[in-house]
Fold this sequence. Notes:
The structure holds two protein chains of two kinds.
Chain A: E1 4-14, E2 19-28, E3 32-36, H1 43-50, E4 58-63, E5 66-68, H2 72-76, E6 79-83, H3 94-104, H4 110-119, H5 133-145, E7 151-155, H6 163-176, E8 183-188, H7 191-197, E9 200-205, E10 208-214, H8 215-221, E11 223-228, E12 241-247, E13 250-255, H9 260-268, E14 272-278, H10 281-303
Parallel strand pairs in A: 3-8, 3-9, 6-7, 7-8
Antiparallel strand pairs in A: 1-2, 1-4, 4-5, 9-10, 11-13, 11-14, 12-13
Helix pairs in contact in A: 5-6
Chain B: H1 3-36, H2 40-71, H3 75-79, H4 85-117, H5 125-150, H6 153-175, H7 193-219
Amino acid sequence: MTDYAFEMKGIAKKYPLFQLSNIDLKLKNGNIMGFIGPNGAGKSTTIRMLMGLIQQDCGEINVLGCNMPNQQVAAKWNIGYASEDMRLYANQTINWHMQFIGSIYSNWDNKYAKKLLKQFDLIAGQKIKGLSHGQRVKAGLLMILARRPQLLILDEPTTGLDPVARHEIINELMDVLLDEERSILFSSHNTQDVEQLSDQITFIDKGQIIQSQDKESYLQSWRRIRLEISADTILPDLKGIVEQRKSGHQAIITTKLFNNELAETYRKCGATVQSVETMTLEEIFVSEVLASRKNSQHNNGATL
Amino acid sequence: MNASIIKQLILKDWYFNRLPLLLFTIIAVLSLGLFSINAKSTFYIGLVLIISLVVTVGALLIFSSVVNERKNQTLAFIMSLPLSFLDYTKAKIISNLSVFLVFWSILVTGILLIIYYSSHLPNGLIPISVIIMGELLVSYVLVLAVALIKESETWTIVVMGITNVGISLFMFLVAGLSDIGPYIEGPIALWNSTAISIVIVELILAISLIGIIFYLQSRKKDYL
Lengths: 304, 224
């Protein structure tokens, strides 16, 4: 058995106005990957390729030991997939959906489904069309969680939810994580959710993976350094500096390769280090995306 | 073949359409009753009703189980289940055709029996009735093919409109054929080579369209 819940190697997919390229991504069994990117970055396309719903132009995709999309049927027995644009049948009840899914999956756990019903405050006899957005998301999650899949692929599961519903869903996902064999890929705009849940972070922008790393070491490597400088201080162009902003006698440095020697280096240049601040995932995400865009513009300019 | 899931999808589609289909079957039986009333006008009213019913049931099946699945975004839910797009296509064709064929067969059998046993309707009506019902079957399979292949509500409606207009034109054309028209009012059902050929062509067209659906669906790379 492979060590990875999924692996994508050299994936590309071209559309008339958008393309995904050089997608290399893998998730270890039992890990949770937060997949973050702006709107239109390629998150859903990547996820749909993982599900075998879109065929890649080139490259290999392996999910739970199955080659995708050819072996999607075998893989999907063990995948729980929910996406923001997925709907249940509006005129049917939650109970009908539970029976429908139960008739397909032999590992459907009715006891757990009933427990989730209570936990999510849902009524089995209620029709889907009578549910709020939050309730619909919860009903959708119930349908996949109660069959205890090995891999959960959740495409923006918390988008559009109120804080309470979001909290409930994040909590339930955290409970699911107690099963260390289960792997989760979950895309979101909400970096707070991702920061809370994930142990691996992947950023995507304009169809390219710009970062994929272990969350803890990633967060540790980013710092914002505030410096007091004089008019004649020349700040060195160090490796890993993502942004350098100067305003009068103040300079703010954002680095993605922080180490303890960095502050010392600035001191030696005549700057006074006022503070070294950790950054939130959201701040890092924005910096990473902007830096990546700046780089690609620079590269495009160089090739012109 | 992923038989167990295909079966569940078929049962689901049948379940969703059970009430309107029951209602249409009752109306169809009542329409057949009009045929047996001893008046020429009731025969034509019954005929128009039956053609309308077949078209309506076909539209209901195609819209509720194919077009709306995509429009209402339930296709993503279905495709998250352990099945391939070809399994999905098989399920849709079987669930649609099975219900349509049962409904269509009841009407064809009813029409033929009424014409055969009633004294006021000439048996010469039998070939043209079979030909017209055959055309309705081909039209239905064509619309189903467009709905599945094009995955577009607009295209489905356009082709449905064209086939509906085509029914009247087809009836007019067939009735105008020298091998068909003169024998409609005749006492015997005349199955000459023209009548048999039209029925065979209709059958070949319906079967070919199903083959085309599978061929084109198997070549698709993106399903959502």
